[in-house]
Structure formats: C-alpha cells, structure tokens
Amino acid sequence: EVQLVESGGGLVQAGGSLRLSCAASGFIFDDHAIGWFRQAPGKEREGVLCISSSDGITYYADSVKGRFTISSDNAKNKVYLQMNSLKPEDKAVYYCASEMFGYCSGDEYEYDYWGQGTQVTVSS
Prior knowledge:
Largest sheet: 7 strands, mixed
Shape: globular
Strand content: over 45%
Radius of gyration: 13 Å
Order of helices and strands: EEEEEEEEEEE
Distance between the termini: 40 Å
Helix content: under 10%
C-alpha cells in the first residue's frame, strides 16, 4: 500500500522557519518524483517544489524562491521541505505527492498519490 505522510507543520511567527517531512512507503522511492503543494484558504492548490532523480529540483512558486528548499533522504524514504523567512501568505495546508514516472510537474493532476496534508500557520 502506497502511503505518504506529512509532518512538521505548526504555528510560527513571521520570519521563522519550519521543516516539513514527507515519509513515503509502499513504492520504489528512487523512481518517483515527489512534489510539495499547498492550498491556502479559498484558493486553489498550487505547486511549490519538486524533486526527482531525473529532474533534480524544480521550483513552481516564484514566491518561495530563496526561502524554501527541498531535499531527500533516499535511505529513509523521506523528502523534506525547509521553509525559512516565513510570511503570513505562506499559511496553507501543505501536501506532498508522488509521481510514479519520476517527472516533476506543477500540475497536481500529474501526481498519483497524496498525503493527508499538514497545516502551516504564520502569524504576523
């Protein structure tokens, strides 16, 4: 059974940092692309970052460049989203998702499996 489980969300003050984790199981981790998406209240879900062995790291949200980074630990089947200099507009539910052919995309419909999401709240 494929599972993706996010953790690490919470409440942080503006300018602070959080590191989200995505723990994957049930598939060959190295073959997949793992993307991070977020959905703010009243808005559509948007792609943030993606990592894969074939594409490397791809940014989909210009607003996070220079502040967010993505990394993976293949031995642990985990992908991390390091978020620095957080802003109130980063408040959202953050999801990780896997794409089974290893190609990153900013289109949520390209992804096959999703985690349940983790809430990030940034206070001003």
